[in-house]
Amino acid sequence: AVCSLSGRLSQQTFDSPSDKPQFPGASAEFVDQLEFIQPNVISGIPVYRVMDRKGQIINPSEDPKLSKETVLKFYQKMTLLNTMDRILYESQRQGRISFYMTNYGEEGTHVGSAAALEPSDLVFGQYREAGVLMYRGFPLDLFMAQCYANADDLGKGRQMPVHYGSKELNFVTISSPLATQIPQAAGAAYAMKTLNSNRAVICYFGEGAASEGDAHAGFNFSATLECPIIFFCRNNGYAISTPTNEQYRGDGIAARGPGYGMMSIRVDGNDVFAVYNATREARRRAVAENQPFLIEAMTYRIGHHSTSDDSSAYRSVDEVNYWDKQDHPISRLRHYMTARGWWAEDEERSWRKQSRQLVMEAFEKAERRLKPRPEWLFTDVYDENPTGLQKQQEALQRHLEQYKEHYPLDLYDK
Ligand SMILES: Cc1ncc(C[n+]2csc(CCOP(=O)(O)OP(=O)(O)O)c2C)c(N)n1
Ligand SMILES: [Mg+2]
User: Fold this and answer.
1) Which ligand sits nearest to residue 303's alpha carbon?
2) Are 83 and 359 in contact (CB under 8 A)?
3) pTM of the model
4) How many whole angstroms from 399 Cα to the centroid of ligand 2?
5) DSSP-assigned letters across all residues of 140-205
6) Which residues fall in a compositionally biased region of kind Polar residues (predicted)?
7) Which of 17, 101, 222, 389 is the most exposed place for a label (fewest CB within 10 A)?
8) Which ligand is located closest to the Cα atom of residue 106?
9) Does CATH number 3.30.70.920 belong to domain 60-368?
10) How far is Cα 319 from Cα 329, in angstroms, rounded to an integer?
11) Which atom of ligand 1 is nearest to the CA of 235?
12) CB of residue 105 inside a 6 A radius of ligand 1
């Protein structure tokens, strides 16, 4: 029996702890059947939702039962973001600003997640999360100042539009090389854990960015170092023109969580309450248990990727219309509010008017404001400017002095 190649009997006979695999890298059993694991072993991860498309609560025990005041705040932030997007998109089209990215269709992912966090939690965004910053209280004037690169911009006009940041609101400045924020966020969460600060980190990224190597590094460090972080993937169907069926072959991003040993969930990103519930519970447990959570919010990018893109080249108008007309996070929330008698045509009309006015005032103010002082180009990187930079600054000053008639220097702050 010892020499039997059929194996089964001898295994039973010599069953002892040493017959279990002893490899340090896995906790598993031996098998004697050749079998590959099917790639779809994790497939069809369900989509958690609280409301149906008509804004009706499906399971009352999942209703977050937020106050009227909070729900109205959700709605107002989502629609204000929409209005700001429309005005800034148009102003790029008119040549007033150089670039813009809209958030159409993803408002529920922003507001639902932002509302579930503590203000002291640190946010790392990708670039399509303006609603998170808006929910935290970033004023329209500062959004506009950033896009207009005027003297009020916290970044002093040194970044492309939509690269917002706010130290006060714990929102790390956007850097658009994809996925760089993911390992940075993991490191920040590790620091928060070691400082025992009771803070969490949330890191937003697109399903396209999740294909970058940096995403792997961030996920794996967070899991092994047991970091209080929420990885929030906005799966909006596209990475510019690349649809998800060309982006990955597994069951989306949530399916990767178990591979990293991470708690994971897929939610309906167009259901602001589902996003809120999932983020709130993930946030609570991330801090209480020091472990990372992965949330994949399914949504749809209704706008073009950016003002440099024309999405009609790679998707149908019907597809976009479906999401815009049938399954929109804003209309879903409005159905919910209307059913409770919290919102009707009158409120809608006056809020539309008021919000448009707020955006237009901020826009006009930003456009009138002077540009940042040219010497601010040279500040904020070094504590003391190295001689090389000092020389460049002097050269710029001489150049502007000599050729001043070629530069609109009166538009710049002195
Ligand atoms: C490293 C890197 N490669 C390529 C780009 C160009 N790029 C900018 S956005 C983008 C698509 C990202 O898609 P996704 O992560 O799904 O986010 P979404 O735009 O859909 O919100 C690409 C390829 C980049 N910014 N950085
Ligand atoms: Mg995407």
Assistant:
1) 1
2) yes
3) 0.94
4) 44
5) HHHHHHHHHT-TT-TTTT-S-TT---BTTTTEEPP--STTTHHHHHHHHHHHHHHTT----EEEEE
6) 7-16
7) 17
8) 1
9) no
10) 16
11) 16
12) no
For 351-383, the DSSP string reads: HHHHHHHHHHHHHHHHHHSPBPPGGGGG-SS-S
| pLDDT tens digits along 245-296 | 999 999 999 999 999 999 999 999 999 999 999 999 999 999 999 999 999 9
Quick one: how far is CA 286 from the chain centroid? Answer: 18
From the CA of 126, the nearest ligand is: 1
Domain boundaries, the chain: 60-368, 374-411
Instruction: Give residue 36's pLDDT band: very low, low, confident or very high (50, 70, 90).
Output: very high
- Tokens 């896995």 belong to residue: 26
Cβ atoms of 297 and 107 closer than 8 Å: no
| Any ligand 1 atom below 6 A from CB of 110 | no
C-beta of 252 in contact with ligand 1 (< 6 A): no
Neighbours of 372 (CB within 10 A): 20
**Residues, Cβ < 5 Å to ion ligand 2:** 206-208, 236, 239
Tell me the HSE value of 114 on the side-chain side, using a 13 A CA sphere.
26
Pocket test of ligand 1: the residue of 181, 240, 242, 308 to mutate, having most ligand atoms within 8 Å of its CB, is 240
- List, in sequence order, every residue forming a beta bridge with 294; answer none if it has no partner: 231, 264
Give me the mean pLDDT over the 206-234 stretch: 98
For the chain, report the end-to-end CA distance as a whole number of angstroms: 93
Number of CB atoms found within 10 A of residue 335's CB: 17
Q: Which are the catalytic amino acids?
A: 90, 176, 305-306
* For ligand 1, atom 17: residue with the closest CA: 206
Considering only 35-44, 50-59, 143-152, 177-186, which range has the smallest mean pLDDT? 35-44
